């Protein structure tokens, strides 16, 4: 295994030029390959131990596929996924199984991911037994401990998933993911399917668990408002590529990529006065198909400030200072070209985040 070690050790996870292509075939008996969906097309980022990286972008831009390819639920087409310096893409058999215990996923739809015919206790106990982490009575004790950890009554172990609310089911999904004592968790839109009133509780729970257990998260969401609480840094994805990455407050106060500016202009502000004045940057057209992405910068077909170069050459992903990366030919002037309404919105969101940062969060239990 030591031969696979290739990292400096500063990061728990390092993703290098990750690509996940899906073949598109036609025909029933003789399947012809008619194209390739480039769901993830050259993504690179690193996550420090104990850090949360938010990953945002519109539906279909490749966020879930990135998460799955990191966990080796999909075997990437190319690129490296270094976990403590070991390239997961090179692991097979028992070595891969052992590594999989340390990297887990929490899914968007907790109901679809919980077996309706198993009791909650058995659902949580299953991975403990599979990985032989406890035996006999100790399994039951561990299940009760996990239920308590996620704010559920341990007596619920004998009930079935349908007997719980959406928020409680997501807590069960979290308990199952944590049952194997992972270091890294991909949270794939964990609150998108929940009522707004419950979303904050689940996000707070994830934050508290991170502090208690020293977890590292990749937190996937489709808008910036969900990730702003939980993320240390945020990566913005568009059509299979990361187009901007920075510390949360920096990304919100000084978005360099016009796509981030547009996403930011859509973040709701819980202040009726500001909200009334809010104007969104409306992006023309839909996200182009990853089957046939535009040449040059993938975003140029919808970009309000695109120039000829953007149509011809792909912009490199460059550090514009202190780890604020962007892939945009006009990144240096984009902030001055940013529409006035979007600038005001960015300022309002940044102020809101600064105010939120001072608040003490508390976990509420759902007994
Ligand atoms: N197994 C697959 N086979 C073929 N294409 C796929 C497969 N999985 C995903 N895709 C395609 O890859 C692209 C990225 O999908 P992905 O689910 O990763 O996006 P996403 O950003 O997570 O979107 P959402 O928020 O809707 O889940 C989409 O065009 C999708 O249709």
Automatic annotation (TrEMBL):
It holds the Pfam family ABC_tran. The keyword Transport applies. Keywords: ATP-binding, Nucleotide-binding, Transport. InterPro entries: AAA+_ATPase (IPR003593), ABC_transp_ATP-bind (IPR050319), ABC_transporter-like_ATP-bd (IPR003439), ABC_transporter-like_CS (IPR017871), Oligopep_ABC_C (IPR013563), P-loop_NTPase (IPR027417). GO terms for cellular component: plasma membrane. Gene3D superfamilies: P-loop containing nucleotide triphosphate hydrolases. GO terms for molecular function: ATP binding; ATP hydrolysis activity; transmembrane transporter activity. Residues 13-264 form the ABC transporter domain. SMART domains: AAA. SUPFAM superfamilies: P-loop containing nucleoside triphosphate hydrolases. The keyword Iron-sulfur does not apply. Transmembrane segments: none annotated. One of its GO terms (biological process) is peptide transport. Belongs to the ABC transporter superfamily. This is Oligopeptide/dipeptide ABC transporter, ATPase subunit. It comes from Chloroflexus aurantiacus (strain ATCC 29366 / DSM 635 / J-10-fl).
């Amino acid at each position: 295994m030591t031969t696979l070690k290739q990292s400096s050790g500063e990061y728990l996870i390092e993703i290098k030029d990750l690509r996940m292509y899906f073949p598109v075939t036609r025909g029933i008996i003789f399947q012809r390959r008619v194209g390739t969906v480039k769901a993830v097309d050259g993504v690179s980022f690193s996550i420090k131990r104990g850090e949360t990286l938010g990953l945002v972008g519109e539906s279909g831009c490749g966020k879930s596929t990135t998460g799955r390819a990191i966990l080796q639920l999909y075997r990437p087409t190319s690129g490296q996924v270094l976990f403590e310096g070991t390239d997961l893409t090179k692991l097979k058999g028992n070595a891969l199984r052992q590594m999989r215990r340390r990297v887990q996923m929490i899914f968007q739809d907790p109901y679809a991911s919980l077996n309706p015919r198993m009791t909650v206790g058995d659902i949580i106990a299953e991975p403990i037994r599979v990985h032989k982490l406890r035996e006999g009575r100790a399994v039951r004790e561990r299940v009760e401990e996990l239920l308590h950890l996620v704010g559920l009554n341990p007596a619920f172990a004998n009930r079935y998933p349908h007997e719980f609310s959406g928020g409680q089911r997501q807590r069960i999904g979290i308990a199952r993911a944590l049952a194997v004592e992972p270091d890294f968790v991909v949270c794939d839109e964990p609150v998108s399917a929940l009522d707004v009133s419950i979303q904050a509780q689940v996000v707070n729970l994830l934050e508290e668990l991170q502090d208690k257990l020293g977890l590292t998260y990749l937190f996937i969401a489709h808008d910036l408002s969900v990730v702003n609480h939980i993320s240390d840094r945020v990566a913005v994805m568009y059509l299979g590529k990361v187009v901007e990455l920075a510390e949360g407050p920096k990304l919100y106060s000084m978005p360099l990529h016009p796509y981030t500016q547009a996403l930011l202009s859509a973040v709701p502000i819980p202040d009726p006065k500001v909200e009334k004045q809010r104007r969104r940057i409306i992006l023309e057209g839909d996200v182009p198909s990853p089957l046939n992405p535009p040449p040059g910068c993938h975003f140029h077909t919808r970009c309000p400030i695109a120039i000829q170069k953007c149509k011809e050459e792909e912009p490199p992903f460059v550090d514009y200072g202190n780890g604020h990366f962007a892939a945009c030919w006009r990144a240096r002037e984009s902030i001055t070209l940013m529409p006035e309404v979007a600038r005001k919105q960015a300022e309002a969101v940044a102020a809101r985040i600064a105010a939120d940062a001072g608040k003490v969060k508390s976990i509420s239990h759902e007994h």
